[in-house]
């Protein structure tokens, strides 16, 4: 019989058994969380890049004419969005499936969040910072970009459309 370290804090064998079960469960669940975070590529966005939110329109990258989907030389895509009460602009974006996509998003006013249900795309959009998310969308279809940080009376209607098209038909549509 091994020397149970829990003996130091608990005399009852049945109670010690249950303490062990809960400890093992906690370790297993923590391990599963870690495993799925790695396996599903769930990274906390960690880009730290500042920008003056009141002057987005004067920047090169976030000027109205430069927003949207752009092809990169390496075959990936870059999607530049402005989040502002109450929408993500441009309000309709189209990307091919299974292609690396880098989102770069800046808020023009207050704190927003963006979440695309059924994908791993989610981040906060903090005014003064550029949020960057790298992802790819394995499934085709229409998705919604939803705001998931309360940002004002129009928060509930703050969303825009993301269409993932088959890869062959892919290509940037501005
Ligand atoms: Cu933007 Cu809620």
> C-alpha Rg, in Å?
22 Å
The global form is elongated
Mean pLDDT: 89
How would you sum up the major sheet?
5 strands, mixed
In CATH, what is the class of the largest domain? Mainly Beta
Query: From N to C, what is the helix and strand string?
Result: HEEEEEEEEEE
Tally of strands = 10
Parts with pLDDT < 50 across at least 5 consecutive residues: none
CATH superfamily of the largest domain: Cupredoxins -  blue copper proteins
Q: Look up the CATH topology of the largest domain.
A: Immunoglobulin-like
Count of domains: 2
Query: Approximately what portion of the residues adopt beta-strand conformation?
Result: 25-35%
Number of helices: 1
Bound molecules: dinuclear copper ion
Coarse structural class: alpha+beta
Helix content: 10-25%
CATH architecture of the largest domain: Sandwich
Distance between the termini: 70 Å
Can you tell me about this structure?
This protein has 174 residues and is an alpha+beta fold. The protein folds into 2 domains: 5-39; 53-169, Immunoglobulin-like. It has one helix spanning 13-39; strands at residues 68-71, 77-84, 87-89, 92-96, 101-107, 112-115, 122-125, 130-135, 141-146, 159-165. It is elongated, with a radius of gyration of 22 Å. The structure holds dinuclear copper ion. Dinuclear copper ion (CUA) is lined by residues 112, 147, 149-151, 155, 158. Residues 112, 147, 149-151, 155, 158 line the site of dinuclear copper ion.
């Amino acid at each position: 019989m091994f020397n149970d370290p829990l003996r130091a804090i608990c005399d009852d064998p049945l109670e010690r058994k249950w303490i062990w079960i809960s400890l093992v469960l906690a370790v297993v669940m923590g391990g599963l969380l870690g495993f799925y975070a790695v396996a599903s590529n769930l990274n906390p966005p960690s880009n730290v890049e500042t920008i003056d939110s009141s002057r987005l329109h004067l920047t090169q990258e976030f000027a109205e004419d430069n927003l949207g989907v752009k092809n990169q030389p390496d075959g990936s895509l870059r999607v530049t969005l402005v989040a502002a009460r109450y929408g993500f602009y441009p309000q309709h974006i189209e990307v091919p499936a299974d292609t690396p996509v880098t989102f770069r998003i800046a808020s023009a006013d207050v704190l927003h969040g963006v979440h695309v249900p059924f994908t791993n795309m989610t981040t906060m959009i903090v005014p003064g910072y550029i949020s960057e998310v790298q992802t790819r969308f394995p499934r085709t279809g229409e998705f919604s970009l939803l705001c998931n940080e309360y940002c004002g009376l129009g928060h509930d209607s703050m969303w825009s459309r993301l269409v993932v098209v088959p890869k062959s038909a892919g290509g940037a549509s501005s």
